[in-house]
Amino acid sequence: MNGIHDMGGMHGMGPIQREKNEPVFHAFWEGRVFALSRALGAWRKWNLDASRHSREVIPPAEYLRMSYYEKWLTALTEQVVGSGLATRAEIESGKPARGSTKAVPPLTADKVAPLVANGAPASRNVPATPRFKAGQRVRARNMHPVGHTRLVRYARGKQGTIERDHGIFVFPDSNAHFQGERPNHVYSVRFAARELWGEQASPRDAVYIDMWDDYLEPA
Amino acid sequence: MLLRDQYDADKMDITRRGFIAAAGASAGSEAVHAQDHGHDHDHQAVPSDLALRTKALESLLVDKGLVDRAALDALVDTYEHKIGPRNGARVVARAWTDAAYKKRLLADATTAIAELGFPTGLQGEHMLVLENTPKVHNLVVCTLCSCYPWPVLGLPPVWYKSAPYRSRSVIDPRGVLREFGLQLSEDIEVRVWDSTAELRYLVLPERPAGSEKMTEDELAALVTRDSMVGVAKVTLQGGQA
Asked: From CA B159, how far away is CA B147, in angstroms rounded?
């Protein structure tokens, strides 16, 4: 979707504000939101791409106003309701519905270290034919899907060169909407800064963007 | 610290609408305030709306048996205390002092990082290391969200996730670097890496001149988080971030 989250190349966002001795979490609740998100992920009711999309659909004015973990909390709450893990009435009352059965959490404390150590690789060991190879000139497709995509707007229609083939990965555009993993090759594509931004950019500079095979066409 | 006590000991009925409305008026400013200055005092008279909402959600999910509170504690503890940029600094220092390791790191970063005993799990499953040289400077961003190599750098700082950095680092990387105090000459090639897929990037900064006699431990102490994102160089003085 052409949402506010797709920020590459925008102006007017102000100076970068750095903080000395920044804590990992600025408030206790932020850590809880982070942890809840990981713990609920273990139910496998959604996936990483769907989680990202749930934050992208926050209305633009709200998206810019909210702090990072407020966006997470808002999106997570919608995912909990949308997936049926809890009802809106339960969220509002803070209490389980009368007569509801108690579940068994899939992520217990002893499983945290293995989760952190092993993660959830998005690569897939399935055959997929790469349409492109290193050194080849390509063009990012000029497409504007209303759903989730990782094809950044600033590169659409632009030409670049395949730098390397990273292998085969889950395709976010379908996976975010539970329409299958459709694994395909991901490439690092080098775009000259001037191809993206014109004469104002330095002639030496480049932006490397990871792109799925389905985002590309021969140039 | 913004204390757990405040979150746990909040004795009021969290569903009381009057209280939430009152707390909500000040809630939005919390993050901004926290970004303004690092502080360790608790200045909130009442828990924020966000703290209340989070607490209510956690309590519901625990009551429903959907999450385990001890697992939440373990997750927070892991990212507050166990995983952070010191991991990445060890990787960099090893690469500076062991040419064979550096070669392995540049060829297969995920395996080479695991070799040092660091996790290569959550948000570090597919790692790539980018080497800075006198001719090439690498800078990492995620314009779409906040992708960052957790196992070696921990969770990202607020600026990395912020609109100013995400929007400008691809269109004006040299301007962004100047904001961080780094002026690069035109003959250096700047490569910006937009983390749009599941590859996660760690910059291998240049080893500072004058560090030839330093041990691996001493070198690791110089390596900052910012240098491994590519917004700073490593100096003999080290740095806070």
From this structure: 13
